[in-house]
Amino acid sequence: MSVIVFEGTHGAGKSTTIEKLNEKYNLECRKSIPDWFRKYLQFARGLEPVSQKKVYMIGHEANYLSLDENKDYVLDRFFYTTIIRLNYDLHKSIEETVREILNINLEPAAVIYLKAEKEIILKRLKARDNYPFDEDFFEYEYKIFMQLNKTYDKIIIIDNSSNIDDTIKQIDKELEVKHLTLVRRENERGV
């Protein structure tokens, strides 16, 4: 079983990239928290940040522990996003947030962080009816993943500023470097 997590700010292209990758490989795509757990998220959002993290972690662990050993998975986000969001609200330093992320026991095979220039993100968000953009959070999240990339060998930084085919080629190349082999769909093998 391989678990690949996609991270990146809103508008980075996670959903599009996951969809395209799923066309090529026999993956099961999931959100980071199972659907049955989502009813508890409203409750969690009303809690103070430390308790919020605990509730979210239960959801992430429940999802992760339910994965079938005989399949490959792609998760749209992971517990990292929750930590980053809550620590940003708490004004925690980048170093504190990186340390907290590095202490998580759940470990995917790879974490693909999709990045794009701010102008491209803004253009994509505008196409989504001006989805809100927080420039300070954008910078905070970016710096955290750049720092993680220096110390955590599971992080793969992919520039998703150009077209999706280039992004998929970059991902394939990086997965090969990490010796991660995903099962191709039948039509990709010429069967």
Q: Helices and strands, in N-to-C order?
A: EHEHHEHHEHHEH
Q: Which strands sit side by side, in order, in the main sheet?
A: 2-3-1-4-5
The total count of helices amounts to: 8
Poorly predicted regions are none
CA-based shape = globular
Strand content: 5-15%
| Cα end-to-end separation | 23 Å
In total, the number of strands is 5
Largest sheet: 5 strands, parallel
Describe the structure.
The structure is a single chain. The chain is an alpha/beta fold. 49% of the residues lie in helices and 14% in strands. The model has no long low-confidence stretch (mean pLDDT 90). A five-stranded parallel beta sheet has the order 2-3-1-4-5, sandwiched between helices. Helix 5 packs across helix 7 (135-151). The chain has eight helices and five strands; from the N terminus they run E-H-E-H-H-E-H-H-E-H-H-E-H. The protein starts with a strand and ends in a 14-residue tail after the last helix.
